[in-house]
Amino acid sequence: GDVAFIVDGKRNAVEVKDRLLTSAQLEVSIKKARVAEVTELIFVVQSRRQSLFASDTDETASERLASKEFASGLNIYWTSYDDLARQVLTLAGESGRKRFLQFVGIALEEQSVDARHRWAWAQAVGDM
Q1: What element of type H or E holds 93?
Q2: What is the C-alpha to C-alpha distance for residues 28 and 50, in angstroms, rounded to an integer?
Q3: Hey, is 26 helix, strand or coil?
Q4: Spatial contact of 89 and 96, defined as CB atoms under 8 Å apart
Q5: What is the per-residue burial (b if ≥16 Cβ within 10 Å, else e) of 6-40?
Q6: Which of 80, 89, 90, 115 has the highest count of CB atoms within 10 angstroms of its CB?
Q7: What is the pTM of this model?
């Protein structure tokens, strides 16, 4: 994932997407999650649309994949960045929001993420 961490002994991975999700992306991430022994896989999607998926077919296939993986111990979630920001960062308070922004920026730098993705992150932060 783009961001990985451990909470209560469980491995978590967060994939941040600046485009709509496809079931193919989920399949690749699921394979990586299994290798890394991740139990919680969360996709955060930057989208202004109601759906977070590229197509209805992708959404249906992704829901099927998530149900199948849940039975084997991998929990898969997806949410929009806007929803995440409003709900979680509100609870984090001022200092928590600042730390979140810093950690994401550091992670992007450490992974040598392409400049266009860093720019997309900076724009998303500016919209908060």
Answers
A1: helix 90-110
A2: 24
A3: helix
A4: yes
A5: eeeeebbbbbbbbebbbbebbeebbeebeeeebbb
A6: 80
A7: 0.71
